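Deliverable D5.2: sample structural annotation.
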Amino acid sequence: MSARRPVSVFHYILKLFSGVEVGCELEEKERFWSELDEVMESIPTGERVVIGAYFNGHVGEGNTGDEEVMGKFGVKERNLEGQMVVDFAKRMDMAVVNTYFQKREEHRVTYMSGGRRTQVDYILCRRGNLKEISDCKVVVGESVARQHRMVVCRMTLMVCKKKRSEIEKKTKWWKLKKEECCEEFRQKLRQALSGEVVLPDDWETTAEVIRETGRKVLGVSSGRRKEDKETWWWNEEVQDSIQRKRLAKKKWDMDRTEENRQEYKELQRRVKWEVSKAKQKAYDDLYTRLDTREGEKDLYRLARQRDRDGKDVQQKVDKIRKDEVRKALKRMKSGKAVGPDDIPVEVWKCLGEAAVEFLISMFNRVLENLEKAYDRVPREELWYCMRKSGVAEKYVRVVQDMYERSRTVVRCAVGQTEEFKVEVGLHQGSALSPFLFAIVMD
């Protein structure tokens, strides 16, 4: 028989078994141990397991040859059933807890009948958890079954405090909607840049100055997240009902009469009904609108936008111009979530022409570096990206053979240089190189 119980909030597993009785055939005993093995193997290795059972065996005194699974303080000599207990402990990497604590024989004997005194009831635990057990002994004078005495074990478990996830405090960028906040932000940023209006060319420096100025001028949020509620379908009727329910709740909190309670409960039921009705009506209106010509136009417009955003550029790309950046900033919506740099589009709109100049310079430098990156692709990175993209190994080896021991010369006005090794970058003029470069960039 077995029972698995979670212990408190730690989700540790307590296993309780009743072992084989006296007079059982060897085949039945082996079946018991086989079933116990299956139960143990079904438990994840990381879970704590404690087995308490009457195994009807003597593991004996001393632990020569079995030091890893038992201590020296057993009772009498080992018999066949006791050897089965020890073998089980070895198979499952467990320890016989009773035998590790030096006690008087009175506190080790678990079975007494007439003149017979022996140890047949054991507590086992995983060897890795043995350090958590501080004591194990027999309680004299207490019996849980006829002729069997109670075995107690003291186990100290570390209570792991649940780490509270730190909520990141966010800069109140939304204040840039106000013209006075926007003007103050521009002035403070100009002061931080030593009076210059032009932003530095270095991205890291510029981004850090912008973030620091934003925190000082606009402030930061407390970090507490507001509960997200779906409210797009709310109407005035729902809002009025919710407000009346809140007032009724305050009234009941101040004066706990049955009349106030009934009034609050009635408003609570009414609000639930009105919310359900308003939500259903909003969805019905949405579906009805989608069936109209205007709704179809909206769907097609969204589909065209997504299709345009997902297309690759097929022609040569010239340097980015000022009017393109201005147009892009104008089209970008405010109030969107920030990216990894923690700088929203409101900042660039607020900074005006200075932001346009900085963004043009940065974007064009990125394009120039991308052109040079074609010749700087590390070979090991190329093999890794090909395998990561699912390219068959035989094709990876073919490309490796193409790049192995590659050499080249440089032609100049006075002739050619001597050959030298090319150990980085992609082959120039190869039809395969653009495909390999795209794999690395992806």
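Annotation notes: The longest helix spans residues 258-290. Residues 243-297 form one domain.
The annotation will be released with the project's public dataset once the embargo ends.
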